[in-house]
Specification:
The protein is of the alpha/beta class. The chain has two domains: 37-121 and 225-339, Periplasmic binding protein-like II (D-Maltodextrin-Binding Protein, domain 2), CATH 3.40.190.10; 124-222, D-Maltodextrin-Binding Protein, domain 2 (3-Layer(aba) Sandwich), CATH 3.40.190.10. The protein is built from 16 helices and ten strands. The strands form two sheets. It has a five-stranded mixed beta sheet with strand order 2-1-3-10-4, sandwiched between helices. A five-stranded mixed beta sheet has the order 7-6-8-5-9, with helices on both faces. α2 crosses α11 (241-259). It is globular and about 55 Å long. It starts with a helix and ends with a helix.
Length: 340
């Protein structure tokens, strides 16, 4: 009997040691995985369902699969986002491609390079204070339009669309564009302006609360443009090529996932990023962006889109001389990722 007890005791002791070793081994493995993650600081110009593929890439674990520990920060407005990038407060910026052109025209020594595209249309909608049954662009004449920051893509596209409908934004309406990007929606909600230009889900929230009504899409009206891209300083792309490649790979996974899933499934994936937004708003907002093909299905920014961007900038009189596509766009990494 004593022998049996002794054997059982020895067996239990052995089991404890093996289990302890197993737990230690598992812990070591997790620690090693954590050690392998490379931190990347990403600054996004706004927080919107317009960027759903990015949030999907995070929530579905694509960045971690690629060995990246992503730190996401919202820096409202292109000027603040670019400042964060240029001052080394961020490694990568998600912002309108026009900002890289502004930096280039200042003859920066370390150019800002677009290496992956996320959205391919404008992401804003025209919201009217009054409920209009049959909206016509003529309706906006003589009214007060609460626009976006001067020189930014939303405002330039907004003015471009107005001109396409024979409306001079400087003469045919009262244009307000001195309100900080983060406060535009609240300014409209409090009574400023007859029309406002907003991203989703803010536009739909405004509509659901009875404070405005979506009457048109600037994305539909303006066509395909490299509206929002991932960019980094040229030195970072050179020194951290493997990291940028892994980052782009994660984004491409997110793009493909969004392209092959429904608005409901996408909303399920990204809802943690919009905790204060009701599910039906998430779904309808995503459906709007899907219907107008706002989400790029791959990370390549092509030359035709680049030319359209500069045409819009010229129309807005913020660009005197075009910047060659090859100078500020690097598609090598994106193409290599897609060919893998």
């Amino acid at each position: 009997m004593k022998r049996v007890i002794t054997m059982i005791s020895m067996f239990m002791l052995l089991l404890f040691v093996v289990t302890a070793c197993g737990k230690s081994s598992d812990t070591e493995k997790k620690d090693k995985v954590t050690e392998k993650l490379t931190k990347v600081r990403l600054a996004e110009v706004t927080h919107s369902l317009f960027y759903a593929p990015l949030y999907v890439a995070i929530s579905e674990g694509f960045f971690k699969e690629e060995g990246i520990d992503l730190e996401l920060t919202t820096t409202p407005g292109g000027d603040k986002t670019m400042t964060a990038l240029l001052s080394d407060g961020a490694d990568i910026a998600l912002v309108g491609s026009e900002t890289s052109i502004y930096v280039a025209t200042q003859e920066a020594k370390d150019k800002v390079i677009n290496f992956a595209q996320l959205t391919q249309t404008d992401g804003t909608f025209l919201v009217a204070r009054e409920d209009v049954e049959a909206f016509s662009w003529e309706d906006i004449k003589g009214k007060t339009f609460l626009g976006q920051r001067e020189g930014g893509m939303p405002q330039m596209v907004g003015e471009y669309v107005l001109k396409q409908h024979a409306i001079d934004p400087k003469k045919d309406l009262t244009l307000i564009q001195n309100i900080d990007f983060a406060n535009i929606a609240s300014a409209f909600a409090s009574g400023t302006g007859d029309y406002v230009q907003l991203f989703e889900p803010t536009a739909s929230i405004m509509e659901k609360e009875g404070k405005g009504h979506i009457v048109a899409s600037f994305g539909v009206e303006s066509g395909t443009v490299p509206y929002t891209s991932f960019m980094a300083k040229e030195s970072y792309l050179t020194e951290e090529k493997d990291t940028v490649t892994a980052f782009t790979r994660a984004i491409y996974k997110g793009q493909k996932w969004v392209d092959s899933h429904s608005a409901q499934e996408i909303a399920d994936s990204v809802e943690s990023f919009f905790a204060d937004t009701e599910k039906d708003i998430l779904i309808s907002s995503i459906e709007r962006y899907q219907s107008q093909y706002s989400y790029a299905t791959n990370p390549i920014l092509d030359e035709e889109e680049w030319n359209q961007l500069q045409a819009i900038m010229k129309e807005a009189k913020v660009l005197d001389e075009e910047v060659p596509y090859q100078e500020l766009v690097n598609t090598t990494i994106a193409k290599n990722v897609m060919e893998e």
